[in-house]
Amino acid sequence: MKYSLGTVLIAIVFLTGGASASAQTADEVIAKHYAATGGVENWKKIKSMKKNCIRRSRGVEIPVTITVVQGKGYKSETTIGGMTSYTIITNNEGWSFNPRNQQKPDALPAESVKLAQDRLDIQGPMIDYKAKGYKIICLGTDDVEGTECYKLKVVMPSGKEETIFIDASNYYLVRTVDKTKANGKEQTQTTTYGDYTSLPEGIVYPMSVDGGLAIKSIEINKPVDENIFIPGK
Fold first, then answer.
1. 55 in a domain, yes or no?
2. What is the tens place of the pLDDT at every residue in 11-41?
3. Buried b / exposed e along 3-13 (16+ C-beta atoms within 10 A)
């Protein structure tokens, strides 16, 4: 069967056009992600966030509170049996405390504090990532439990690597996989996200994390006493 030159050219245009439509750069995926979740400007307005959560474990609901002041401090508190354990991260220090096992907070190793600095970034690693010294590349698409996702690889100055999976249909964050090295050992942590909700501040936020942590309420840009980032306060 013979094909005319015009037919061949049309076929080439169709095929190459389809390929370019399906392939996206990291910057294109990131732009669409923030367009779908409220816009970069609304995210940049967030300077503090307090999440009141419930973690369900073996039929028991455990209160968890996470407070972050952008670029300054992070504190996660978990209350079990009336006793509260916590983790604190600041720009240059960190502590952990479990009243069941300790009488006073333990200082975290400098390496652990360095690897946890991204917890101070409410806005996430993708906003102004170049200015933060991050590198992000798009690794194409991958399947996450039946959902086609764009796969972005983030390399942070700390040496921490994060793989971000973004739903190719609605551009919501589906999963992150963090990879770090501590004491010569590689550690991997996988986090899944769901139950996206529009907040009054104009952003769309996941109210379910890891399937077991449900966010009951969020306080955004409310005053935070930064003394909470001092152990024992």
1. yes
2. 433 343 333 335 799 999 999 999 999 999 9
3. eeeeeeeeeee
